[in-house]
Amino acid sequence: MLALMDRSLMGTSYLLCPSYGAAYVVCQPKTSLNSYYFELSLRTPNAVTELKRYSRGITDFRLRLYWDEFKNICVLVPSVDEINAILNSISAVNHTYDNLITVAERQILLLKERRTALISAAVTGKNRRKKLASPTIKSKQQGRRCMI
């Protein structure tokens, strides 16, 4: 069970996990800037590389970033208007992709229904095609009809 303890140290709180005996630093914003911007910017490849530089551990999947290193990382902070413009742009792109995903999922569903209907018709014999007569053409060389 997780318990949140309200101890403040340099603007942070600690999240203690008694079952594991580990402590996690939870950073709380000191300004009214939109923290979602910083979440997204810290997930970029360049930011991840920078965060890894300050992390410690034996292998990539065991890296730990401690507060003493994390607090020294510099992050560019655009103006509030720029942050809002960036987030609005990201939101519009996400909305477009969400719509495309919805359309693709609907098409996949319809194709699955069509496949099921075709299989059912083939098994029950309702999908027998009429044998078409083979088309013939007149051979220019011999003046007779040939089967193609």
Could you please describe the fold and organization of this structure?
With 148 residues, the chain is α+β, with helices and mostly antiparallel strands. It contains four helices and five strands. The chain has helices at residues 35-41, 45-54, 67-70, 80-124, and strands at residues 3-9, 12-17, 22-27, 136-138, 145-147. The strands form two sheets. A three-stranded antiparallel beta sheet has the order 1-2-3, with no helix packed on it. The protein has a two-stranded antiparallel sheet with strand order 4-5. Strand 1 and strand 2 (12-17) form a beta hairpin. The longest helix is centred in the C-terminal third of the chain and has 45 residues, at 80-124. It is elongated and about 75 Å long.
Would you spell out the secondary-structure blueprint of this structure?
Elements: E1 3-9, E2 12-17, E3 22-27, H1 35-41, H2 45-54, H3 67-70, H4 80-124, E4 136-138, E5 145-147
Antiparallel strand pairs: 1-2, 2-3, 4-5
